[in-house]
Amino acid sequence: xxxELMESFTRVFVDxxxxxxxxVPQEAIGVGSAFxxxxxxxxxxxxxxLVPLNPPPGHAFYLELNxxxxxxxxxxxxxxxxxxxxxxxxxxxxxLCLLHHSQEELRQKQERSLLETLCTGSYLDVEKTSRWFxxxxxxxxxxxxxxxxxxxxxxxxSRSCRFQLSRGQKSLTVELLFxxxxxxxxxxxxxxxxxxxxxxxxxxxxxxxVAEVKFFRHIARQMPCExxxxxxxxxxxxxxxxxGFSSSAWKTVVMHVxxxxxxxxxxxxxxxxxxxxxxxxxxxxxxxxxxxxxxLGNERLPAEISLPPAMRGxxxxxxxxxxxxxxxxxxxxxxxxxxLHFC
Length: 343
Description:
Protein name: IPIL1 protein
Number of strands: 12
Organism: Copsychus sechellarum
Largest sheet: 10 strands, mixed
Order of helices and strands: HEEHEEEHHEEHEEEEEHHHHHH
CATH topology of the largest domain: Beta Polymerase, domain 2
Strand content: 15-25%
Oligomer: single chain
InterPro entries: ITPRIP-like, MAB21L/cGLR
């Protein structure tokens, strides 16, 4: 339902912004566990979709790194610059150049640059973009076929567009995140959910969610038993409560095992063996206090997943670094592993 709705919305969005200087929404990408094919026990029931934004005519986006700490926690600012469109041909319409046409001409056409609408200073503002995007969805709703069979109610959210769809006894919640792609790669900076706790309205966190979704699709195309790896994830998420291991850590462990164990060995008759492979990999990671980030620095990443040049060959990020720093945390992790092993 969410995928079909976003296809309908995208067609309307393109028409809505075609003669404006607002960002241009691209084809939406479902992200998170719901679109990867599995559901963790603590799932909040929200279907999240990332909508890439391209700069409008006469504008360019440039990403500037804000935090130079751990790569997985980086945030960026999206700097907006005006570019000349005098030489650009627009069949059937005259495109005003924001750099070289007079303010009076622009005022007469009511053409305001993106810098004047959704930016704070020279940077794209997440909260202003969220309000604009929510209004775009609101105005587009009556133009999509789903409006005749679903009831839409918006939910307050400062860094995304969130709404509930209902039809009789059935309902689902959808959250539209928006982001800017890093070059031609599968890595984005995104608005992120409000609970991500980013205070600056011009801060856009880096996200690897699209690359992870592509990895799961890559695996599904080659898996002899298509959903076996997802069943492994489901089994462990059912027994994770109280063990101290998060579902995101488990997903990382399973993705690494999928890259190591040949996919021909993921048949139903080997289901239990694969569960023990996953447990064995976790034990190794806990003992050595190291769990590498799956995207950053991973030489086994499928070739179809594209990374920015700056990310190639980087040192893998250790997601268990806190275990190396804190002996008490390491002891607790070993005890949690033994508890999980018993379960």
